[in-house]
Amino acid sequence: MFKIPDHQVAGHKSSKGAIGPLVDDSGRFYKPLQSADRGAQEEAFYTKFSSNTEIPNHIRKFFPNYYGTKDIEASDGSGPRPHLVLEDFVSIRTNPSLMDIKMGSRTWFPTASEDYIKKCLNKDRKTTSLSLGFRISGFQIYGSKDSGYWKPERKCVQGYNKDDVRLALRKFVSSNSSDDLVAEEPDCVYAENVYGGDNGVLAQLLKLKAWFEDQTIFHFYSCSVLMVCEKGESPCATIKLIDFAHVIEGNGIIDHNFLGGLCSLIKFISEILGKFSHNSTKVCVVNSEKNTSNGYKI
Amino acid sequence: MFKIPDHQVAGHKSSKGAIGPLVDDSGRFYKPLQSADRGAQEEAFYTKFSSNTEIPNHIRKFFPNYYGTKDIEASDGSGPRPHLVLEDFVSIRTNPSLMDIKMGSRTWFPTASEDYIKKCLNKDRKTTSLSLGFRISGFQIYGSKDSGYWKPERKCVQGYNKDDVRLALRKFVSSNSSDDLVAEEPDCVYAENVYGGDNGVLAQLLKLKAWFEDQTIFHFYSCSVLMVCEKGESPCATIKLIDFAHVIEGNGIIDHNFLGGLCSLIKFISEILGKFSHNSTKVCVVNSEKNTSNGYKI
Questions:
Q1: DSSP-based three-state secondary structure for B108
Q2: Is A218 on the interface with B (CB under 8 A)?
Q3: What is the pTM of this model?
Q4: What ipTM is given for this predicted complex?
Q5: N or C: which end of chain A has fewer CB within 10 A?
Q6: pLDDT digit string (tens) for B145-160?
Q7: Are the beta carbons of A54 and B294 separated by less than 8 Å?
Q8: Dihedral through CA B91, CA B82, CA B35, CA B240, nearest 10?
Q9: What letter does residue A152 receive in the DSSP assignment?
Q10: Does B133 sit within 8 Å of A256, measured CB to CB?
Q11: A–B: how many Cβ contacts below 8 A?
Q12: Which chain A residues have a beta carbon less than 8 Å from that of B264?
C-alpha cells in the first residue's frame, strides 16, 4: 500500500496533479525519476555507488540503501512510472525533526548549460550558498504533543541570511523552538545529545569530511545533507546524503566544493556545541567565544 | 640600493615604463601599492594582520613580515610612490625554484561589481580554478648550472589543465625537469625532501589547513600560496601566502573557498609523495594507486 510520506521538508511533493515520492509499509521510499536527464542521472549514480567496492562501509551508511528501480502508479494518478526504490529512514521515526541542507557554495557543475549555470549562480548568490558554502532548503522541528511541528514556509527559509541559519541550527536542538525565528532565545538543551557525543551529528560530519578529503570518485553538486533526529534523552541523530541528480565523475580530483561547505557547517555545529554543551569544559566555551567575537570585530 | 628582483613568476613586473616590485640588499621587498582600491586594501590587510593578536605564531610565519609603507622611487622612474615594505624571502635563496598557486575555485568576492565578477568567473572557468580549486599562476624550476632555470611563458601556464598541473607539481621536485612539459617522465627524486618530512610542503599545508578550518577573521580571495625551495639534500622548502588585495572580513564564517582549494592541493601533493617517495611503505603506494585508478574508472 503506497502513501504520501508524512515528513518532507524539501523537493517535489506529492499532491493532486503533482508527482512526488511515496512510501510503503515495509520501510521503502519511492522517488519518481525526475524529468529530462535528472532521473536517469540519479539512477546511474545509485547503480554506480551500489556496485563500487571502494566505498568503505562506514561511509556507505550515510547513503540511503538502493533497491533498484520499479514501475509503480505515480502519486498524481497519471499511471505507472519508474521510481527509485530507496530506504525510508524518516517514516520509521516517531516525531522526527528534519533539516535539509544543500551543500556547496556552487550548485552548478562545470559542463552545465549557460542557462542552467546562470540560474544556479543567481540562486547561490541570493541564498547563503555563496557566503556559507551551504544553504538550508527546508526543515521541521517537533515541539510537543500540543504544539506539534514547526515547519516554516519554503520561501521564508530560502531568504535566510547567515544569522537566520545560525539561529535555525540552534532551534533545531532546542525545547522552545516550535515557533518562528523571532521567538525567545533558543535554549539548545538537546545540543549535546543531538550534535555532540560519539555518534552525534558532529562526529558523523567529521567522518564524512575525512572521506571527502580523500575521495576523487564523485562530485556531488546540489546534493543535500539530511539531518534527522528525535528529541529526548536518546535522540539517535542520523545524517544522510540525498539527491544525486547532479553527481558527476570526480576524475581524480576531490570534491572541494562540497568539502568546503561541509567544513563550514562543521564550524557552525561546533560553535553551538562549544557555547551550549552542558558537558563542555570552560576552555571550550572561552575558545568558542573568542573565535566568534574575533570574526566580527576586525 | 634598490634593484629589480631576480626571481618573480607572477604578478606585475618591473621594467622600463612598467611599475613593479623592488628589493634592497637588506632582505626587504618593496611592492608598489596597486591602483584603485587594491593597494589601499592590501595595506589595510597587512596593518590588521600585523596587529591581530589572535593569529598564532606558527601561522604568522606563513605570511611575509610587514615593515610598514614607504615612499620610494618607483621602478619605472616616474617619481616617489608608496610601497609596502615586506620581507624578501626569495632573493636570499641560491637558485630558488618557485611556484605561485592562486587559491580558491572562486577568485571573486560576493560584494564585487558585476563586471569584475564576470571577468573573474570567466577566468576561473577557463583555468583550473573551477575544477581543481586552485590554478598555477607561474613557476620557475632550477635545473643545473648549465641548464639554468626553466620558466614557462605565463600564457602557457594559464592554459594548463589538470594533467598539466599534476605534471608541473611533479617536475617541481624532479632533477630532469628543466625543460617543457613534453619532456621525459619526471623522476621526482626531490619529492620526499621538498614535499615530505616534518617541515616539508605537505606538513606546512596541513598546518595551514587546520587554521583555515577554524579561523573566521579573513577571507582570502585571489590570494596565492608561494612555494619556494632549493633542490638538494637539505632543500628547506618554504610556503608563504602572498597577494592580499582582495581579502575581506570573514564575519564569523570560515573561508570555505580557500580551504576547499587547499584540500585539493594537499591531495595532489599527497599523491606525488605516495607514488614517488623513497621512504614510503608499500601500503602507501598501493593505496595511492587504488585511489587514482578509482577516480578515472567510474
A1: coil
A2: yes
A3: 0.90
A4: 0.89
A5: N
A6: 888 899 999 899 999 9
A7: yes
A8: 30
A9: -
A10: yes
A11: 114
A12: 253-254, 256
Cβ–Cβ gap A256/B217 under 8 Å: no
Torsion over CA: A275, A280, A282, A287 (sign): negative
DSSP B139: E
Most A-contacting residue of B103, B263, B268, B273 (CB-CB within 10 A), to test interface: B263
The position carrying cell 591531495 is B267
Beta-strand ranges (E) seen in chain A are: 22-23, 28-32, 66-73, 80-87, 97-103, 134-142, 149-150, 218-220, 224-229, 238-242, 247-249
A43 Cβ contact list (under 8 Å, min separation 6): A33, A69, A82, A84
pLDDT at B199: 92
Is residue A133 a contact partner of residue A264, using CB atoms and an 8 Å limit? yes
Q: What is the mean pLDDT of each run of 10 residues along chain B (298 residues)?
A: 84 75 93 89 96 96 96 91 94 90 96 94 97 97 88 92 96 80 78 94 98 98 96 81 96 97 98 68 34 31
CA separation for the pair A295, B200 (Å, rounded): 30
CA A116, distance to chain mean position in Å, is 22
Check CB contact under 8 Å for B110 and A133.
no
- Rounded distance, CA B274 to CA B295, Å? 16
CA gap A195, B85 in Å, rounded: 47
Predicted confidence (pLDDT) per residue in A147-167, tens digit: 889 999 989 999 999 999 999
Query: CA-based Rg of chain B, rounded to a whole angstrom?
Result: 19
